[in-house]
Amino acid sequence: MVVLAAVVALLGSLFFALGAALQQHEASGAAGPSMLTLARRPRWLIGTAAVAFGGGLHVFALSAGPLIVVQPMGVASLLFALPIAAALHGRRPSGGELAAAAVVGAGLAGLVVLIPSDAPPPSLDDPSALCLLAAAALTAFLCFTVARRVSGPGRTALLAVAAGVMYGACATITRVVVDGDGHLWLLAILPVPVLAALSLLQRAYAAGHFPVAYATLQLTDPLTAVACGALLLGEPLPTNVAAAVAAALLAGAGTVALARTTPLTG
Known about the structure:
It is a single chain. By secondary structure, the chain is mainly α. The protein has helices at 2-27, 35-38, 42-64, 67-70, 77-88, 95-114, 126-147, 153-179, 186-189, 191-206, 210-232, 241-261.
């Protein structure tokens, strides 16, 4: 089941990459893109539909495997963004891009191999679930507040961190709902933090520096979810900590390099 979860999560990453490219194209250049305005743009709607489909695959993956397997697979969306970006710009990927993609793939493969295949059924009581969402919302609000006072890549990164923390917390709650002990009422409130994260991400795209935004999101989201999975859900961590850290650093380094070389700008 863990292998199936990883494969489905990778497929979802393909749709995330396509959707992100289309969303950023429509959101770029606006200081504070209105969701209502973006919703009237067909290309943005197609991108959002791609992201939503990828999200559905992601939910299925969460029902089949632990957070520490599923969430890091999101980083692979940068691998899919590489040929998508190259096609959009009418060229082939450069040698540097392919090298960075290979580094990311090696790091992700190492993480999957090192992570234990068994995980206990996720369980989270209602107060803990609400506290998790509240903590994520507070963190996102602080990042958004600071982002309003800075410009350039710093603003983009802070907005992407805010979105990534919200998405990571929502992924944790989703895992509890789809493969845990119920709490179906959480599905009624999840759209609120998800839409908040989506709005923050569009602002990050609009601020420019798309590679910074996408790379930061793809690192913050899984780190948040993995931390929540280990601390709140009791999911196992790799027994070989040094090798896992090395694989994570390898994936992170490749992600940063790939994000800097992939021309997904407006």
